[in-house]
Structures are given as C-alpha cells and as structure tokens.
C-alpha cells in the first residue's frame, strides 16, 4: 500500500519527535499520485469539507452551482424555499455530469443527453421517451428511486459545507470547539463582501502549512509585517480540534477616514485581535472585529491547488454603497498578501522533487502549527479522522524537547 511506503515507521518516528528534532512529512506526501488518491478518499471523502460557496450566493431560489470536491462532481442547489442542498452531479440514466455552469432562476436540472430532468430537491421528474417513442414512463423505471444522490450539506458563517460520509456529527457539533472560542462574534450577521481566487502549482498542504506560520512575514510580506509584525503573532491551539496564528495588534484599515461596521459587543481586546486557525483539512479562517475571511485550498492534482478567498463583512450596513470602497480594499489587501505567498509555496513544491529534501526541519517557536498540521494529516491519512492529537501535549509546552513554544492558549470568554 502506497501510504505505508511513504509513511514508513521511520518517517512517522521522525515526524512525531519533539518539534526541534522532528522532520516534516516525506516529500512524496506532496508529489505522489497514490498519496493524492488516498487523500481524496480518506480525508476529503469523509468529514465536513468547505464546499467553496457562500450561502449568500445560494440565497435566491433556483440558484445552481456545480463544483468538484474530493475529485467528485457535485452540485449545490437552492430550492423554492431557499433551502441549500448538495447532490452528486451525475445523471442516474447513463452517468452524464448534469450541470457544468453556475446558473440562476432554475426550476429543474435537465440532463443534456436524453433530457431526464430533476427538480431542485433532486427528485427525478421527467424521463422523455424512456419506454420508446412517445412513452414517457416505464414500469421498471421508478422515478422515486432514481433521484440525484444527495450529499450531507450544512452551513455555518455563511459558508456551505458538505460531507460525503453519512456517519459522524452534524456540522455545528463538529465545529463546537471553534464556535465556543468565537462565541463573542455573531456569525449570523456575516454577508459576502467579495471573493478572489488563486491557482497554485503546489500541493494543497503547502498552502495550509504556509498559512500556519507567521515566520515568513518579514521577508515575504514586508508590507503586512510593517503593521502586523511577525513578533506580534502567536500560535494557539484548541485542544483536540485545531491550531492557528493570532495577532493582538490588528487595526482596521480606514478608507477615506472610515472603517467598516464591527461585530456588536467587542471588548477593547477583541477590537485589536485577529485569529487565523486552520480547520482541517483545508479551511483557513481569519476573524477580526470588522471582517471575517475564509481561504479554502482545493486539491486539483498532487502539485496543483485552486484557492478561493472570501471576505465577509458584518451586517447589512457594511453591504451598502457607502462601504463599497472598504469592502474592495479589504479584499484587495488580502488578495495581494496571498499573491505574495505564491512564489514561495510553489518553490516548496519544486523542492519536494529533489531527493535531497528529507522532510526538512521545523523552527521551534515558529513552526508549531505547521508541525501540528502535519501530525493531523498523518492521523487522517492513517484513518483516524484528522484529530488534533498533539494539541493537548503542545499546550504543556515544556514537553517539546526542552523548547518552550510560543504558545499561549487563551480564551475569549
Ligand atoms: S445520461 Fe442523463 S438523460 Fe441520459
Ligand atoms: Fe504568507
């Protein structure tokens, strides 16, 4: 089995060492087609995955959005009541991908091949000439049994999630540790303020690893580092769930002297706090007093990733024309920062084609979240579901090979 060839007992032992002596994931974890296939089934094919769509985009009944997740074609629909659902985007007749373009105002999803039509709840509604010319039904073709195959679909923070696995908790239960940490923020008020997309010639995990440390700020993001310097960032852990960066010196950037509306009830500390966790596997979040973002890294191939970046603003007022420039400036600021990362992330991928790449080392006190993510990945690819198994250990600090990590767990409560 390919995974065992890549994740040898020696590779696992090296990764699981205290951070100062640990090695990173073997380079094949970023280059191998077999590892990629295993990721699709064992990581992206189970558990809650951000779909890459905002609920605001599906607010209008009749909206239909086709996507590819875990290598599988799916379609999101908004039915007549505005209920968002997900289905496998595969016709039950002879398997044609039914929808290829996002569209609005739809009443049915009609397969282009033989015109079988499904309603927005996935029910098969018409099968023209199925029993021969002029015979639109047949006793053996039971429409009630051959609707589009549904996929679990729920939403949080204006983000649509799907889960290909019938087992496991609902989305809000799954996200409970993070929701508890962020309970001061009323995410029901979030509105989609703008979107940017990126294409990376790199494995999706390198995008996540890059997001997981602020060590590179002085060199890759000189502008960002001038107002949000590396030394203002810390790593935080939500034991058993996830890890991320935080900065205590966030300042909302004014446009024409005006900043955007904030979440209600922010404390002075929350006004200047920014937190950037990674929700395994591929969802990178940023919360601030005046906006929220989601950066999702979608694997396309072992060395190709598509990223979608959404900025959400708070409440209806922030969506008015008066704040259009603020919204655009926020999207543009983050877009430019993400573009700055592309070169180094792609060069990490190039480095992984070299036999000299032995997994690399972690900078103790800088790369704690990268190490934690790699350990989560190992847990997931070996079938454990991607639990943050090391988080509790990391919070103890001194167990990390004598190095005191820059970890100061904190609560907003
Ligand atoms: S494959 Fe869809 S109608 Fe025939
Ligand atoms: Fe960066």
What distinguishing features does this structure have?
413 residues, alpha+beta, Naphthalene 1,2-dioxygenase Alpha Subunit, Chain A, domain 1, Rieske Iron-sulfur Protein, 2 domains, seven-stranded antiparallel β-sheet, 13 helices, 26% helix, 25% strand, globular, disordered C terminus, binds FE2/S2 (inorganic) cluster, binds fe (ii) ion
How would you sum up this structure in a few lines?
By secondary structure, the protein is an alpha+beta fold. 26% of the residues lie in helices and 25% in strands. It has two domains: 2-47 and 176-396, Naphthalene 1,2-dioxygenase Alpha Subunit, Chain A, domain 1; 50-156, Rieske [2Fe-2S] iron-sulphur domain (Rieske Iron-sulfur Protein, 3-layer Sandwich), CATH 2.102.10.
Query: Kindly, what is the distance between the CA atoms of the first and last residues, rounded to a whole number of angstroms?
Result: 46 Å
Query: In the CATH classification, which architecture of the largest domain applies?
Result: Alpha-Beta Complex
Question: Based on CA inertia axes, which overall geometry fits?
Answer: globular
Strand content bin? 15-25%
Strand order of the largest sheet: 10-16-15-14-13-12-11
Notes on the protein architecture:
There is one protein chain. With 413 residues, this protein is an alpha+beta fold. It has two domains: 2-47 and 176-396, Alpha-Beta Complex (Naphthalene 1,2-dioxygenase Alpha Subunit, Chain A, domain 1); 50-156, 3-layer Sandwich (Rieske Iron-sulfur Protein). Helices cover 26% and strands 25% of the residues. It has a seven-stranded antiparallel sheet with strand order 10-16-15-14-13-12-11. A six-stranded antiparallel sheet has the order 1-9-8-4-3-2. A three-stranded antiparallel sheet has the order 5-6-7, with no helix packed on it. The site of fe (ii) ion has 5 residues, from loops.
